[in-house]
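We emphasize that the prediction below concerns an isolated chain of 201 residues; any contacts that depend on oligomerization or on bound cofactors are therefore not represented. The input was used exactly as deposited, without trimming of termini.
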Amino acid sequence: MPILSLVSEHPQTPYAGSLSFLVSQVGALSAQIFAERLAPLGVSPRAFGVLSNLDSTGGQTQQQLADTLGIHRNNMVGLIDELEAAGWVRRHRSPRDRRAFDIRLTRAGAALVSRISALIPGLDREVGQGLTDTEQRTVVTLLQQMASTLGLHPGIHPGMAGPARAARPPAPGRPTPHPATAPTARTDDDPAAAPREEIPP
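Result of the prediction step, given as a C-alpha cell string:
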C-alpha cells in the first residue's frame, strides 16, 4: 500500500462515538458559524443573547438580566454600556426602585434582533444538512431534553456568560460550592454602589 494513502487516512479516535464529544464538536462549529454571521452586524453572540432576552421580555433590570443570563454583574454593566453606546438599548430609572435601571430595547435594537432572528433558519439548514426534516425535529427534541436534564436555561447558551458562567447543578459526587465563596461586586443596581449619571427616559 502506498505510503501517501497511509498518512492521508484519519484513524478513528476512541472518543469519536462519544455523545459528549460529538455534541461539543457540532456545537463548536455551530457557534463559530453563528459568530461569523453576526460579525458584519457588529454584534457578538453574547450581546445578541441580551438583546433577544429584552425583546422577549419587554425589558428587565440589569440585575435581572445578569441573573437570567448567568453573567456577572460587573460584566453586565460593561455590556449594557456597549449596547447603549451602539444605540440598541436605553437605561431608564425603574419606577419601582429608583436605585435600579430598567433596560429596554430601542427601535434600532428591536430591528437588529429581527434581522438576526431571520438568519437562524439558514444556520439550522447549514448545520443540519444531510438530515431530513423529521430527523432534525427529533434531534432538537432530544437536545432540549438533555438541556433540561442538565439544568440549562432554555435559550441561554452557557458560553454567553463569558468567564463567570451561570451556576448549574454539580456533577454526581462533586461537592456543591459554598455560597460564601462566590464573587460579589457592586453595580448601579446595588444600593451601596456609587450613583451613575441619570439618563432621562
